[in-house]
Design goal:
This protein is of the alpha/beta class. It folds into two domains: 2-173, HUPs (Rossmann fold, 3-Layer(aba) Sandwich); 186-273, Pantoate--beta-alanine Ligase, Chain: A,domain 2 (2-Layer Sandwich), CATH 3.30.1300. It has helices at 7-19, 35-47, 65-70, 75-84, 95-98, 117-120, 124-139, 151-163, 193-212, 218-230, and strands spanning 2-4, 24-29, 50-55, 89-91, 143-147, 169-173, 235-244, 259-267, 270-277. The strands form two sheets. A six-stranded parallel beta sheet has the order 1-4-3-2-5-6, sandwiched between helices. The protein has a three-stranded antiparallel beta sheet with strand order 7-8-9, with helices on one face. A hairpin with a 2-residue loop joins strand 8 and strand 9 (270-277). It is globular and about 55 Å long. The chain binds adenosine monophosphate.
Length: 280
């Protein structure tokens, strides 16, 4: 596996690969890799000729500096994991390589960016859009792979691509879970064993709502979910919402789109998100 750290090097590498007619797949990550990330890499490898995985903890998408400081960084282990799955290239640039000058653009990311995470984490999606656009410019991928674990992020990235005519296809991949059901997340590394046990209530709540939703009014569904989460000591709920899975507007039974339940909560001070599309 090739390790590339500079903008100049990655640009000349992808230019050469494109000249050779290679289809490039790109998996952007912030590292502390787990099976969720590796699944995206594997999918890219089956669908493209060349897979680039980036590892970059993007300062502009953190709205709390302590969250940025605490974010797990495990570059050596990540390189080892990517080598094991035969990823072609890891791109791990410094902040200066990604942002030679600060990007002050306010991106047009549509209504899907203004609710939920957009409300709770001001500036988060703008920072995410800034780094994703910049990384696309550097890696020139034909396809880019994102996990549905970050459901709203997938919608916002698609909006970014549409609004700025970026020549890349966005592929979304299912959430990978621990055998217990806990959604894999780099932030789980910051939880104790007890914390992981507590966090499982988020998955149990999603499962219960998935079983009950056809028999219960939507407002009541949210109440059932909040109640279930309040039963577990140590979960500090930020939101639980049932939304339209295409627009993120409050779910309306007349909509043709499936409902999605989205949850954000803190456990041991660690902010976790999860979601589930309710099955018909
Ligand atoms: P992150 O490193 O957290 O920024 O995530 C990088 C990419 O991996 C994003 O597209 C995430 O949605 C995706 N991802 C993170 N956790 C999971 C998971 N448990 N299952 C599937 N994809 C994931």
């Amino acid at each position: 596996m090739q390790i590339i750290r500079t903008a100049r090097e990655i640009i000349s590498f992808v230019e050469e690969s494109r000249k050779q007619g290679k289809v490039i797949g790109f998996v952007p990550t912030m590292g502390a890799l787990h099976e969720g990330h590796l699944d995206l890499v594997r999918q890219s490898m089956t669908e493209t000729h060349l897979t680039i995985c980036s590892i970059f903890v993007n300062p502009t998408q953190f709205n709390e500096s302590t969250d940025f400081d605490k974010y797990p960084r495990t570059l050596d282990a990540d390189v080892e994991e990517l080598t094991q799955v035969s990823c072609d290239v890891v791109f791990c640039p410094s902040v200066d390589e990604v942002y030679p000058t600060p990007d002050k653009t306010i991106y047009n990311l549509g209504d899907v960016s203004n609710v939920l995470e957009g409300e709770m984490r001001p500036g988060h999606f703008n920072g995410m859009a800034s780094v994703v656009k910049r990384l696309f410019e550097l890696t020139l991928p034909h396809r880019a792979y994102f996990g549905l674990k970050d459901f709203q992020q997938c919608l916002v990235v698609k909006e970014l691509v549409r609004n700025y005519n970026l020549p890349v296809e966005i592929i979304t991949c299912p959430t990978v879970r621990e055998p217990s059901g806990l959604a894999m997340s780099s932030r789980n590394k910051l939880l104790s064993e007890q914390g992981k046990e507590t966090a499982l209530q988020i998955f149990r709540t999603l499962q219960t709502l998935n079983e009950q939703w056809k028999d219960v009014e939507i407002e009541d569904l949210q109440k059932v979910g909040s109640f279930m989460l309040s039963l577990e000591n140590g979960i500090d709920l930020e939101y639980i919402e049932v939304r339209d899975s295409k627009t993120l507007a409050p779910y309306d039974e007349k909509s043709h789109n499936a409902p999605v339940v989205l949850i954000a909560a803190r456990v041991e001070g660690v902010r976790l998100i999860d979601n589930m599309i309710l099955q018909k």
